[in-house]
Amino acid sequence: MMHKKRPASFYWLAAFFGLFVMFLYGPISAIVILSFQGPNGGLTFPMNGFSIHWFFALFGEQLVGDFETSFLRSLQLGLVVMALTVVISLVTGLAFRKKFFGSNLLFYTTVASLIVPSILVSLGIGLIFNIMGWEVSWTTSGLGAHLTWTLPFGFLIMIAVFNRFDKSYEEAARDLGASSWQTIRHVVLPIIGPSLIGVALFGFTLSYDEFARTLMTSGVKNTLPLEIFGMTTNVTTPTLYALGTLTTFFSLFMILTAMGVLFYLRRRQESHGSDAGKGV
Description:
The chain has about 280 residues and is mostly helical. Helix content is about 70%, strand content about 0%. α5 packs across α6, α6 (about 140-165) crosses α8 and α8 (about 180-210) packs antiparallel against α11. It is globular and about 75 Å long.
């Protein structure tokens, strides 16, 4: 069987994609490999043995950095930002289904936060807190700074979701006597559930690894990205790589968890759909 000859553009695009994958995963792979250095290993290749010594050292007493506390701080902040992003994005998306006075101005004001340099947002929030005499902390100014980053993403996702939402489902529910809340609870939310999971994942991951908007707004207590940055200038052992490996696998775990929830919701919807029309 004769195979059709591929055009030269195919090989150029394949080479470009290969370079993209190498730049994306090459540094991560190097950090993961070097985190398994032997006890006498250094920060660069070649490997001097193979062990999990630096993972145990990470949870031991550290001369520089407080990995455990900063990790818990980032986890708590990420979860709060995730919950607020989902709720506010959903409510805002519902509100923007109809035009109202000032809706265009509010829309462009919200998405403008995406094009403002993050470090300027961080500097501005920190400055305002100082002028007002409020204490800069990761629970207040840090939380607000993260929301300026996650909310526009969640808002745009919900706008896209509701733009292609079939309103006939809601009309059918109201014709059957459902109230507005019952329509939202039993019709709208189950349909847009997978999209809300996506918004939650966006909210958590964007907050969890946010550095620039946290720099001037976290106060004296560092989140994990700030702690890692501080460790890069002081730690001279592969402990830093072990920390990078663990945080990478934690991010993968969160993504897989979100995919598992999406899979469960999809199977649940399919199961409910198969019951329709049985007259039970």
